[in-house]
Amino acid sequence: MITRFLWQGVDRKLRWFIALVLAAGIVPVLLNLFTPPGSALHVPAWALQLVGKYLCYAALALAVDLVWGYCGILTLGHAAFFALGGYCMGMYLMRQIGSRGVYGNPILPDFMVFLNYKELPWFWRGFDHFWFAAPMIVIVPSVLALALGWFAFRSRVTGVYLSIITQAMTFALMLAFFRNDTGLGGNNGMTDFKDILGFPVQADGTRAALYLASALMLALFLLIAGAIVGSRFGKALTAVRDAESRMRFLGYRVEGYKLFVFVLSAAMAGIAGALYVPQVGIINPSEFAPGNSIEAVLWVAVGGRGTLIGPVIGAVLVNWAKTYLTGALPEVWLFALGGLFIAVTLFLPRGVVGLWAQLKAGRERSRRVAPA
């Protein structure tokens, strides 16, 4: 019944896109599992792993678009929520290593043995069970977003000031997680994962399952976001974005709308980070870097802010270009990223998704001017 309610709130274009995401998740997995490695139709496990990482980035971009594109909150700290979800998953994966680590300690992870820890820190308790780690992946980023949003929105902090606060938050977390005495791996982070839910992380079947889970996650997030945006609540969100003072004058509790969508977006980013970690095999404090949050905003701008479909396309396109350029011309990537930011600002204000509408409007203007 809930699924039917969500599906009815989604417009037809987004329904087709969700179906496309599901097909892109199911078909490659079937080709990987049921075609021989030498076949031209076979999709190798490394390709699934790479595209699975792109899908996690797309989910992060969708989370950013939900708060920026539809509520007008330009956040520069969503990488923090993404990384916190990843760390929760990393803690679970580290606890699954057991006595197979370098030092053979079944209780303490290798980095704790190396740093002469005597016992497991209290906040690691319970992460040896997936039923405990799974809700923490959602709770930890959500609580941080709730605390930050509660004070910021009640104080009516908006615009560039809110962006600076969110950026300062993720930078402070990065510095804290770099410390070895936090009990979270320090600057090296967590790696050398063995199992997830009893299955080897590096096995081809596990990689295929993680890729499929990433596609299902993205489809579910699109469904939830589409239902929210298409509802009366979504119309109020866009009104808050376009005329916040008028909404206050009409009696709406603007803080409640902002806080809800901010916490939901943080939970989505945390889940995306949790699926990202077992596919890349490592989590470290560099995931908190403010530059990662800025890149996520750029993905949304490239694809099309306030469109839901656009951020997914933008994240995949930009990260595919990053993979190619950092391999072929690594010294060019940062210049290309800066040029892309300028080009989108000047020539693609509606992103890739709005390019056709932009060209169509240009032709209509030229037709009006021609008779004169």
Description:
The chain has 15 helices and four strands. With 372 residues, the chain is mostly helical. It has one domain (2-287). The strands form two sheets. It has a two-stranded antiparallel sheet with strand order 1-4. Strands 2-3 form a two-stranded antiparallel sheet. Helix 2 (12-34) runs antiparallel to helix 8 (204-229), helix 3 runs parallel beside helix 8 and helix 12 packs across helix 13. The radius of gyration is 22 Å and the shape is globular. 40% of the residues are buried. The mean pLDDT is 90.
Number of domains: 1
State the assembly state of the protein chains: single chain
Kindly name the structural category: mainly alpha
The low-confidence parts are none
Count of separate DSSP helical elements: 15
Helix content: 55-70%
How much β-strand is present in the residues? under 5%
Number of strands: 4
Mean pLDDT metric: 90
Biggest β-sheet: strands ordered side by side in the sheet: 1-4
- What radius of gyration results from the CA coordinates? 22 Å
Q: For the report, how would you describe the main beta sheet?
A: 2 strands, antiparallel
Tell me the series of helices and strands, N- to C-terminal.
Answer: HHHHHHHEEEHHHHEHHHH
Terminus-to-terminus distance: 58 Å
State the shape: globular
